[in-house]
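ok, trying the design again with the full structure, not the truncated one.
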């Protein structure tokens, strides 16, 4: 009986080795998949950050076009503001920057009020004071925009590199 028990050892050892190999392979696969998911998530955040920064610059350009169109009467087609894109990307992917985006929105609203007043002046032929007050509304907006872009750049350097 001892001889037959001894002949089972290679089968038992082989089975244990197969089980260990399968387990190790599964663990390696899980680790690889988790690492890939992290890389994919990081890439997605980087792509969305790039899209957010582009939307901020698009918004800045939109404000300039609105100013030139409404205040100075340039023949620029009206367009929808891209600020909703800034807000949506921020709320979904980067909620930590929501406060800075809200501050930018408030500062931009002051610019839009100035633009509306400038358009009213132009329509009433009050061209002499057309640029009055521009620095007072533009500088706070510019500070908020640069503050947001700086925070996004810092995030990119620290989190996405």
């Amino acid at each position: 009986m001892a001889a037959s028990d001894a002949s089972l050892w290679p089968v038992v050892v082989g089975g244990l080795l197969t089980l260990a190999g399968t387990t190790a392979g599964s663990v390696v696969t899980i680790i690889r998949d988790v690492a890939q998911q992290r890389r994919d998530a990081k890439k997605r955040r980087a792509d969305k950050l790039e899209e957010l920064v582009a939307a901020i610059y698009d918004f800045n350009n939109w404000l300039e076009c609105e100013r030139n169109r409404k205040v100075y009467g340039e023949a620029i087609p009206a367009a929808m503001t891209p600020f909703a894109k800034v807000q949506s990307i921020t709320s979904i992917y980067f909620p930590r920057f929501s406060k800075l985006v809200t501050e930018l929105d408030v500062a931009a609203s002051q610019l839009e009020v100035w633009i509306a007043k400038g358009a009213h002046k132009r329509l009433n032929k009050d061209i002499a004071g057309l640029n009055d007050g521009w620095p007072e509304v533009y500088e706070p907006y510019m500070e908020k925009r640069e503050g947001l872009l700086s925070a996004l750049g810092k995030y990119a350097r620290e989190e996405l590199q």
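Keeping the full-length input from now on. The chain has a mean pLDDT of 88.
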